[in-house]
Amino acid sequence: MIQSRVVKGVAAFAGLLVLTACSGDQAGPSGGDSNIVQGNGDVTVVDAADRQPLPELSGETVDGERLSVADYAGDILVLNVWGSWCAPCIAEADNLVTVAEETADQGVQFVGINTRDPSVENARAFEDRHEVPYPSLYDPDGRLLLEFPKGSLNPQAVPSTLIVDREGRIAVRLLKPLTEDELRDAIEPVLAEG
């Protein structure tokens, strides 16, 4: 009886190890922090009167340039948090590129925040592979994400996307990898605000 329990316990532990091994980084050899929370699919839309300002985020881009989100004041800003190691980020990358190109002449700007990539070369390779036309802040230790005040509508997962209105306030938060249609549907009401 005890031997049967031991065998069952060993079998259960072995099964757990297999599941753990299969749930690891599927994005490739680029490294990164696999202890990041992935989104639960939540989409939060905030009424204009209840919106909070986007924190002042600035730093060096993946390409080594200085960037501040304050430079995008007056435009709608799509802020996407991603990592080259993140399989859902890889899945949504081309969708973001397509919508960025479609909306560029409508006053919609895109900026990425590359987080938890231990090497900027991995981030650059990701952007090159997906032909990303917009800049990304390089945030290897996640410090930019800590700029969001506790209790605010912050990007809690990778990937996360925020839509920021023309007044610099967070209008929409999406905690999921996005299709082109989902991204368009999130941008259009903010764009219609005039």
Can you give a write-up of this model?
By secondary structure, this protein is an alpha/beta fold. It has a single domain, classed as Glutaredoxin (3-Layer(aba) Sandwich). 32% of the residues lie in helices and 20% in strands. The chain is built from four helices and eight strands. A hairpin with a 5-residue loop joins strand 7 and strand 8. It is globular. Keywords: Cytochrome c-type biogenesis, Disulfide bond, Redox-active center, Signal, Signal-anchor, Transmembrane. GO terms for molecular function: antioxidant activity; oxidoreductase activity. Pfam families: AhpC-TSA (PF00578).
Write the layout of secondary structure elements.
Layout: H1 2-22, E1 43-45, E2 58-60, E3 66-68, E4 76-82, H2 87-103, E5 108-115, H3 120-130, E6 136-139, E7 160-164, E8 170-174, H4 180-192
Parallel strand pairs: 4-5, 5-6
Antiparallel strand pairs: 1-8, 2-3, 4-7, 7-8
Protein name: TlpA family protein disulfide reductase
Signal peptide: 1-27
Domain Thioredoxin: 48-192
